[in-house]
Amino acid sequence: MLWLTWRQHRAQTLVTVVLIAGAALLLVLDAVPFVLVKTLPVVPVFVGLFWGVPLLAREYERGTDRLVWTQSVPRSRWLVVKFTVLGTAVVLAGLAFGAVVLGWTASADAPVDRFSDEVFGVSGVVAGAWFLAVFTLGAASGAVLRRMLPAMAVTTAVFAGLVVGAYLARGHYAEPEVALSGAHGMAVPADALVTGTGVVGPAGDLLSWDDAMSACAGAEPVGCMRDRGYEQQYTLYQPADRYWRFQWTETGLLLVIALVLAGVTARQVVNRSR
Amino acid sequence: MVWLTWRQHRAQVLVTAGFLVLVGVLLLVHGLGADGLTGDALTARFQSIYTYVSWLPAVPLVAGLFWGAPLLARELERGTHRLAWTQSVTRRRWLATKLGLLGLAVTVAGLLLGVMVSAWLTAFDGVRSADRFSDPVMFGATGVAGGVWWLFAFAIGTAAGGLTRRTLPAFAVTIAVFLTAMFAMFAVFQVRDLYAEPERMLAEGPPADAFVTDSAFVSPAGVEVSGDVPECATAGRDTYLDCVDEAGYRSVLYYQPADRYWRFQWTEAGLLAVVSVLLAGPVAYRVARRPV
Amino acid sequence: MTAGTTALAATGLGKKYRRTWALKDCSLSVPEGRVVALVGPNGAGKTTLLHLVVGLLAPDQGDVTVLGSSAGTTRTLSRVAFLAQDKPLYDGFSVADMLRFGARTNPGWDQDMAVRRLASLDIPLDRRVGKLSGGQQAQVALTVALAKRPELLVLDEPLANLDPLARHEVMRGLMAAVAESGMTVVLSSHVVSDLVDTCDWLVVLNGGRVQVSGDIEDLLAGHRLLTGPAELADGVAGRLAVVDDDRTDRQATLLVRTGEGRPPLDPRWTDRGVNLEELVLAYLRRPDSAALPKPALARA
Fold first, then answer.
1. Using the beta-carbon criterion (under 8 Å), do B168 and A58 form an inter-chain contact?
2. In terms of domains, do C146 and C224 share one?
């Protein structure tokens, strides 16, 4: 089974190793093209498309499920071996990539910090969790849909949803700190993750811009806001030293998702009703 | 043939239409909500969605994957090309209809997205970062260039499918070629700077919406210095600009005026359209000629 | 060949896809060491039945016992080999890789036999499976199934998509292996003539139900084709079990189940034995007729 797993997935393995080595080489040569930083958040989807989806969809599509599941290895063991080996490979790839990206952001002239939305999910330990979760997502959609192309489409769409969800959720992993505008502008520490801005009400309450504006609906906004006592502005942020705490929080969440999706896959594989 | 094209690709058409409707509604709601906002509030509202809008340049890649790559690869992989090409429709006509209709559909979808993003962007007129010209993301997502980026990705996908004859490798090749093309265009060659000779100006700041491409210092003698000003080589970081000022240097900006936006759009559109034809043409020819 | 034990037994077997039953109330019993022909028109449920036997599907109703234990368990998996309809193989693997695949997933794998068999067929081990001809792919798939050294070999339309020469080669290879090992074989086909010389047990499946199941020699001996005047047909039909009757104004042709021996008949009838093809066609034309084994026959 180990040999079979290697033989069937060696192309993905080699390409992944080469790509990660390439990323590491860019780091070593100090030649990181920062336009690529924008594309960093989409990297995990490729794990889903090329590692996850073919795992089952390709077998079903080519009919080789009927070959492999009528050998002496029960399909439950087949799945356990494949999941364990490929899952481990994917997590290792994710951790390696996460380490390389952390290296990128640590270089002196990096235009992004590791806490920013673009980088956070593909740096540190959470990169491994993202790789694993998207791998199981691809596997589960392949197991349910049994065809590559629809499974790839679903994986892409659900992945985009997960990323949006993560962006929205990240601000809430811990109670944010508040910085208020003063004579010298806003005292938001460098490298912090900004999660919201707005104005401070007369009673010290925090209003988002939308709320403040809707309170002034119809009136001339600047004057209205001053009249209502919305003098000060605020920024919600997560300090940079919370990076690792957030990493572990998101890792935990993603592992739960991965577990659920692995369960869906296992159910589909073991279920012999169609 | 038109029916066949529709029947085989309706899933893509419907999903793309659904995606456009979804994005359209989101942009509409977000844009209408900006009505009446000014200053920091308007900027904050723009920033709240900018991260997601900045993904739009990746959307053509998805179109290339799901519209282009399966077009030939799936037929060749399943062997259905033997069925399709032995009907009374010539192989050339089959290919021409498919490439023509699907290429058109993909381009129209991209153009629609461009129109929607352009319309949404007009709601953020006062926001400095919300500029359709100087921001590379916005430039690619608005106007006609967006539509041609879709066509370009579609051509890459089709060519990859015709060459690899299998869906999964075609996917991998499409992704690699598309990202390499983007990387080459914007990181290595910075092609958008080459669409026209920039204007030069001695100034405090560029005119509104202009696309600043470069800056330098000019000595009192009128000589342009790229890099550090020699007189201030020893000055510290904080005092450097004061030193440059004292030495009588002035800054000079190179920029593309805002009214060149459409010229640039058509240049990029033309460039990508030509590359698309060069990519898909030989593959189509090869597929049409090659024995089954 | 150990007669007296059952290789395959199904009781009340049923399988449903959404709302339609692909297979219903299917009961049959096949003794060990037989070569079973599973015959039926397209869509009769042959593939469903075979998938149930090898454990790819689980039944919605009833159960199926293979070699004494229930289908699909780890124990039966290693004793049953299956060749699916389109002979799936991993296209990207070399032939040697396919053998290695078999060796790594089956404890009883016979590598010598596999290598010898492929060498005798002139199939190069280093060739990619996807580059082989259809007949060669079928041979590789069959080799992978045989080298597992199964006690029961299940083949779904093994001869479909093969040219006559390849059909002959595949069948000959199969029969040689059966003669050597004494395994039980179940093979499905919708072309009866493919099976005439090789099989000794017949199962006819039609519309998701088992119509016929029995030893081919017994079945042929127990059926006769009568030809005689049309006006006497009703009388015969009252006395004998008519499987199929085909009447014109004056003449009737009846295929009847007679059991042992020849029935006494009006001399105006002529009668003769039937061949396998006539027998199968008669049953397929009349889905209401059935020749199911008496319990005694099933144990025979």
1. yes
2. no
Please list every residue in chain A whose beta carbon sits closer than 8 Å to the beta carbon of residue C55: 70, 272
What's the CATH code of the domain at C59?
3.40.50.300
Listed by number, the residues of chain A in 72-91 with a beta carbon closer than 8 Å to a beta carbon of chain B are: none
Predicted ipTM beyond 0.85: no
**Measured CA angle at C220 (ends C218, C224), to 5 deg:** 125
Q: Nearest chain C Cα to A274, which residue?
A: C57
Residue C1: pLDDT over 50: no
C140 lies in some domain? yes
Is C296 exposed, middle or buried (CB count within 10 Å of its CB: 0-12, 13-18, 19+)? exposed
> Are C40 and C106 within one domain?
yes
- Average confidence score pLDDT of chain C: 86
Q: Indicate whether A180 belongs to any domain.
A: no
Token readout for C278 is 């006539």
Q: How far apart (Å, rounded) are the C-alpha atoms in residues A218 and B202?
A: 43
Q: Which residues of B touch A35 (CB under 8 A)?
A: 182-183, 186-187
Clarify whether residues C94 and C164 are in a common domain. yes
The two three-digit tokens of residue B270, written as one number: 């033309």
Q: Is residue A245 part of a domain?
A: yes
Q: Is A182 part of any domain? A: no
The tens digit of pLDDT for each residue in B127-171 reads 777 788 877 788 888 889 889 999 999 999 999 999 998 899 999
B45 touches chain A (CB under 8 A): yes
Position C300 scores a pLDDT of 33
Question: How far away is chain A from the Cα of C174, in angstroms, using its nearest Cα?
Answer: 18
Q: What is the least distance, in Å, from the CA of A209 to any CA of chain B?
A: 5
Pairing of the two strands C35-39 and C201-206: parallel
Residue A227 lies in a domain: yes
CB–CB contact A73 C77 (8 Å):
yes
Q: What percent of chain A has pLDDT over 90?
A: 54
User: Count of CB contacts below 8 A, A vs C?
Assistant: 74
Residues 6 or more apart whose Cβ sits within 8 Å of residue A78: A1, A68, A69, A269
pLDDT beyond 50 at C298 = no
Does A15 share its domain with A46?
yes
Residues of chain C with C-beta less than 8 angstroms from the C-beta of A61: none
Q: Mark whether A211 and A246 lie in a shared domain.
A: no
Measuring CA to CA, which residue among C189, C186, C147, C153 is closest to residue C276? Answer: C189
Q: Given CB atoms, is A217 within the 8 Å cutoff of chain B?
A: yes
Of all residues in chain B, the one with the smallest CA distance to A235 is B44
Strands A233-238 vs A177-182: parallel, antiparallel or unpaired: antiparallel
Flag whether pLDDT at A36 surpasses 80: no
A120 shares its domain with A228: no
* Residue matched to tokens 């879709």: B150
- Given a cut of 70, whether residue C107 has pLDDT beyond it is yes
Q: Are residues C21 and C139 in the same domain?
A: yes
Query: Taking CA atoms, what residue in A is nearest to C57?
Result: A272
Among the candidates C165, C185, C213, a domain finishes at C213
Those of residues 46-65 in A touching chain B at CB distance below 8 A are 46, 49-50, 54, 58
Residues C209 and C231 in one domain: no
Range(s) of the domain holding residue A231: 193-238
Q: Encode pLDDT of B180-206 as tens digits.
A: 888 788 766 677 777 887 777 776 665
Neighbours of chain C (3+ CB pairs under 8 A): A
Strand B250-256 relative to strand B199-202: parallel, antiparallel, unpaired? antiparallel
Minimum CA–CA partner of A75 in chain C: C74
CA–CA dist C255, C247 (Å, integer): 11
Number of domains in chain C: 2
Residue C241: domain span? 218-299
Q: Using an 8 Å CB-CB cutoff, list residues of chain A that contact chain C.
A: 1, 3-4, 7-8, 62-74, 271-274
One domain for residues A62 and A78: yes
Same domain (yes/no): A202, A127: no
- C196 and C71 within one domain: yes
